[in-house]
Amino acid sequence: GQQVMQIPQYQHVQEGEDFTTYCNSSTTLSNIQWYKQRPGGHPVFLIQLVKSGEVKKQKRLTFQFGEAKKNSSLHITATQTTDVGTYFCAGIRDYKLSFGAGTTVTVRA
Amino acid sequence: DVKVTQSSRYLVKRTGEKVFLECVQDMDHENMFWYRQDPGLGLRLIYFSYDVKMKEKGDIPEGYSVSREKKERFSLILESASTNQTSMYLCASSWGRAGVPEAFFGQGTRLTVV
Questions:
Q1: Would the CA dihedral through B31, B37, B41, B46 be positive or negative?
Q2: Per-residue pLDDT of chain B (114 residues; tens, 9 = 90+)
Q3: Pairing assessment for the beta strands B4-6 and B87-94 based on DSSP bridges
Q4: Distance of CA A84 to the CA centre of its chain
């Protein structure tokens, strides 16, 4: 099956710092989605990237899709305690939505 | 608001029991998915369905089956529950095959098999 790998698995961040989480696929993706799961909650859709090289921003979050459509990144600037949770990327191929293992973010105040 | 409802938040079953996990969505979505979530492994796709009575295997279908008799309802069946099926199960739904839209998740069912 499709392999979508995410690194790092855990990210411990000082409040106010920036960090990046990466998503890599073994195959070319038609598009990629990002989700956030708060502790005790369920995954919630953040954004979808479709075009090669696409960059989208949501306030302090910047999402990028690689030129070859096999990797993606999420960069968060000035981390806040509200950013705590697990961030998943999900690759779409043949209409199947396959998730990576996620990056779990904790924030030190 | 889209609502995806899973029948139970917590479930405890005995080894060998037949287990039904039910999921209902209220937005007339064509696609429905079942995932299991385990620490360090993320969400793994068990089965998905893109139409009534249609189903396709995901990455880990062994030990599971599904049923979609009505558009709004997608059931996951564990024919003979085993302890290694103890997990969080998440149902999701999305619009149809035109484009690839976002998935909406239910609250999850934490299943413990003893």
A1: negative
A2: 779 999 999 999 999 999 999 999 998 999 999 999 998 889 999 999 988 989 999 999 999 999 999 999 999 999 999 999 999 999 999 987 655 678 999 999 999 999
A3: unpaired
A4: 13
Nearest to A97 among B103, B107, B108 (CB): B103
Which residue is associated with the tokens 């909650």? A41
CA A20 to CA A107: how far, in whole Å? Answer: 14
- For B98, the closest chain A residue by CA position comes to A95
Please give the structure tokens belonging to residue B85.
């099926």
Is any Cβ of chain A less than 8 angstroms from the Cβ of B40? yes
**Dihedrals φ, ψ of A39, to 5°?**
-55, 125
